[in-house]
User: What shape does this take?
Amino acid sequence: MSNFLEIKNISKNYFNQKKVNVLKNLSYKFKKGKIYSLVGPSGSGKSTLLNILSLIDRPSKGNLVFDSKKINFDDRKINDQIRSNYIGIIYQEKNLLNDFTAIENISIAGIANGKSSKESLLISEKILKKLRLINRSNHFPSQLSGGENQRIAIGRVLINSPNIIIADEPSGNLDQKNAKEFFKLLFNLKSKKRIIIYATHNRYFANLADCRLQLINGKLKSINARK
Ligand SMILES: Nc1ncnc2c1ncn2[C@@H]1O[C@H](COP(=O)(O)OP(=O)(O)O)[C@@H](O)[C@H]1O
Ligand SMILES: [Mg+2]
Assistant: This one.
């Protein structure tokens, strides 16, 4: 299967009082059709790596190859376009715009990516049905539970059918029941055309992935990949 996303000898350093070498010369090929979990202690660099994969942050050294093309991290405009066309991102919280309803939150994401508002609203309705949240369409984020907020965040991603979904501890604030529901929906998005990568502290959810990655002392290890 094609290597849609590949990192080559990526390092990331931060300079606080002293130099911190967070990622050390990482190389890895992510394959379409697979789901990856990323584990590692707090501060091991999971978010740093995911932010590089989402083209939000840049590596200190090394390359990222996306769809056979080397990313130029100086080219912010093109990278922003690549992100909005191909990458959907879900964080632990605050994925939604507070002043907009659930359905607006989803449709705005579609409009921002070039869909007409009419088309966007129609798709958003379908997505809300699929997420079993149609009865929450007109609720604002503050009127939704944490679990509902995170499910709407999936909707925001889904409307643009991204080839890559990146989720950084998306169930970190959810109880087990809501977390299970979240991951069930996320795993429903598995497709031959798509890579899904999520960071988690939860061993149970980490083990559901096709490939489990672990960050430890700045190195990436593939552990017990199912395929
Ligand atoms: N913007 C930054 N400036 C300086 N140090 C940072 C910055 N972002 C992260 N770090 C440091 O990099 C390390 C990895 O952080 P992070 O990627 O957030 O880890 P994780 O997501 O695994 O908890 C930590 O030691 C953190 O303090
Ligand atoms: Mg983190």
